[in-house]
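Worked example 3 (structure in, sequence out).
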């Protein structure tokens, strides 16, 4: 684990050096590089790098001849992700949504992401109806522009299913995920990381509703995919098994024999 962390740290430092030293002969390429690097740093919680990229983007986009409304909306989205105060984060995300006032095929995925993120910010402060409204708007854009099979759509629809479960509508959540699993299988593969993630999500909802056998069926499907994807790394498969077993424990159940 320490070695992996060191590798990530070295990678982040390399990215930081690129951000600082890269020649800006092509402003558009540099801008897109920064926009691609931020989510990666966010995923691993590397705040120093996130802060650096926000400063660079903010400086670049002060020039109205640089970038587009989508770039400025994305910057606000990044600022919201970095913001620690929920109210301030929501304000920033709402401003980002408002910048994309006309949704087109070109910016539909961004618009969907922004609404999903705003919904995700409303959820922890208990504004579930607002969270649902924005998540549904985001999913509408995904469906309207044929973007559901895309990788970025998976966390959006999964989060929506979890929200529905929290609001007392687990069957609607399961239905959304079953539809998503079918689309992934049709347009991509049922031996993919996305398919496994959706199976896990369905398993978690089934545990919440007390349907342990069905939850186990979904978890086993997910594990079968991971065993193919991580075939050369048995320690990752074992780690995933332990993670799923812990899910049973967190649900107040001890059904190790179901999974094993």
């Amino acid at each position: 684990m320490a070695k992996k962390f060191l590798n990530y740290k070295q990678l982040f430092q390399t990215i930081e050096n690129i951000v600082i030293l890269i020649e800006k002969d092509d402003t558009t390429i540099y801008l897109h590089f920064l926009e691609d690097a931020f989510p990666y740093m966010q995923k691993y919680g590397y705040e120093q790098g996130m802060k650096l990229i926000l400063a660079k983007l903010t400086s670049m986009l002060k020039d109205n001849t640089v970038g587009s409304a989508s770039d400025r909306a994305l910057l606000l989205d990044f600022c919201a992700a970095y913001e620690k105060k929920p109210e301030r984060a929501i304000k920033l995300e709402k401003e980002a949504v408002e910048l994309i006032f006309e949704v087109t095929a070109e910016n539909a995925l961004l618009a969907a992401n922004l609404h999903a993120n705003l919904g995700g910010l409303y959820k922890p402060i208990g504004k579930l109806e607002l969270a649902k409204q924005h998540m549904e708007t985001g999913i509408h854009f995904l469906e309207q522009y044929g973007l559901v099979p895309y990788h970025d759509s998976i966390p959006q629809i999964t989060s929506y299913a979890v929200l529905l479960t929290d609001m007392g509508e687990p069957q609607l959540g399961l239905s959304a995920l079953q539809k998503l699993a079918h689309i992934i299988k049709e347009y991509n593969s049922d031996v993919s990381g996305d398919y496994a993630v959706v199976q896990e999500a369905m398993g978690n909802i089934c545990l919440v509703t007390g349907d342990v056998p069905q939850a186990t069926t979904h978890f086993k499907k997910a594990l079968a995919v991971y065993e193919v994807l991580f075939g050369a790394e048995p320690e990752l498969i074992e780690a995933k098994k332990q993670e799923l077993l812990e899910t049973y424990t967190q649900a107040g159940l001890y059904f190790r024999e179901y999974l094993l």
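Notes: Residues 2-21 form the longest helix (20 residues). The CA atoms of residues 248 and 254 lie 6 Å apart.
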